[in-house]
Amino acid sequence: MVAAFASSLLAPPKVRNLIYDDPEHLELAERYLDLPLKPFARTASIERVNRALKEVNHDAGVRLAPSIKNDPYFADRIYDGVHGSFGRCIFLIVNSAIRAVEQGGDAVDIEDFREFFDMKYLHFNPENPFKHSDWSHGRMRQRPTGLTLQMSFSRVFPRQRRPKSVDGRGRAQGRRNDVGLPDAPFAVPC
Question: For the chain, does the N or the C end have fewer beta carbons within 10 angstroms?
């Protein structure tokens, strides 16, 4: 009886060159099919980020504030701020919605994105795309170099809470058990 199994190899281009360009590895190269993974096109990714932005906030029971709705480049801010990583885009969107719910607001605002970006991604990208009111498509393309990271704890951990708004039925919007979120504040592990 002969046993067979399938294997996959995901590796950076350097390993690909080692396997396929070196004649000593000809037998190994014959066993693997070379399929390079390419990133999604920018326009497709921006569309996915826009869709996720709307769906996550709808599921969390919060609306998008005018600072987000009226910004035609908001998805670009998210995408460029995390250098095109779709996973980081989703993580940023979800945690900004969580922050809005924890703060007792009924809408996710650019401030929620700004503060979560400062806490989580400032080391990754020293230029926070949510601090610029005049940001437009392509502004973040050039990554700044040689910047020093200076952070104020009062900016990252603000003590002010947004006032709870009341919906049309007279209920405070702070609790969201109808969408599965707990009463107490919670955090998603990073």
Answer: N
Tell me the average pLDDT across 57-61.
91
- Nearest Cα residue to 61 out of 185, 182, 177: 177
What pTM was computed for the model? 0.58
How far apart are alpha carbons 44 and 131 in whole angstroms?
25
Tell me how far apart the alpha carbons of residues 159 and 114 are, in angstroms, rounded to a whole number. 16
Residue 57 · residue 105 · CB < 8 Å: no
Mutual angle of helices 86-102 and 110-120, in 10-degree steps: 120
Collect all residues with Cβ–Cβ distance below 8 Å to 179 and sequence separation of at least 6.
59, 60, 61
Task: Output the pLDDT for position 76.
Answer: 94
Exposure letters 80-106 (e unless 16+ CB within 10 A, then b): bbbeebeebbbbbbbbbbbbbbbbbbb
Residue 188 has pLDDT above 60, yes or no: no
pLDDT, mean of residues 6-19: 80
CB atoms near residue 36 (< 10 Å): 6
Q: Which residues pair with 166 in a beta bridge?
A: 172
